[in-house]
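User: Here's a chain of 328 residues. Predict its fold as tokens.
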Amino acid sequence: MLVEGFKIHGSGNDFLIIDELTTNLTFTEEERENLAKVLCDREKLGADGILFVMKSAHADARMRVFNADGSEASMCGNGLRCVARYANDVLGLDKMTVETMKVNLLVEKTDDIYTGIPTYKVEISPVSFQVKDLPLVIDREQLLNELLPELHESLQFSALAVPNPHLITLVDSSVLQSDLQEELATKVNRPNELFPDGVNVSFVKGLEPGSIYVRTFERGVGFTNACGTAMSASSLVTCSIGLNSFGQEISVYNNGGKVKCIVHHDIESDTYSIDLIGNATYEFKVLMDIDQVHPETFQVLEKLEYENETKLYAKMQTEVQSFLKTRV
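Assistant: Prediction complete.
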């Protein structure tokens, strides 16, 4: 079977896009899982996951996200931006709705985050602070900037679902530079009593008013350059505790670059949504011959690099790293 794929990234969080929207391709659930495990292997094509862009009965397109370990994610903010760009390219729509596992979300092309870099704004919702929605098994309904002594004696954590589950704590540079995040994240993503389904773990540092740094250990992936829902959730937490302001643009820096987030709070309904704004950058297009029964035998027939896009993003990333060097 011939399959055309696109390697694309949002803030360095990289994916392979497979098009079931404008082609006749289709896969079983087992085939999707196996494709993710094989193609995302860093010794092969390499990616954090596969984005299957599909037809939808009630939206302009549908997104399904399979992590590198074969598990399916309910949402992916960086991936949604990548799907927005691809769908924009093939459908010609600057504004559209994309069906995700839990909800249809609005996506749109917007002003460049950096000169020449295609940029998309995507809606991140629904948001829940109810621990049962992660789930987190504790004798409380919510955890917002509070101690979780079963995990650590002094760090204060916030737990929320957007709808992916996130555990977030604000830390200083010394904690960031330690091995503590990997230790805690590994613990809650193995069999444990707190998070039976695992959880994304983010360490956040305030940089200056309106700017934060986020590093995420992603469930099913490990440390990534960036996680879109984690950056969105982290922005919401910083607004909830007064570090940043609702309705104001927040610059969110990460190891893969930067995004912008705007957190909205509807006071009347007490609901939240987040605008996640950032790049969607192509790395290469690839034509593969894949045996659906034995995907590990796939062959790359053609590969086209998007060199100009890659160079432009590298320029922005260099500036971001220079900015972070004295602040993280």
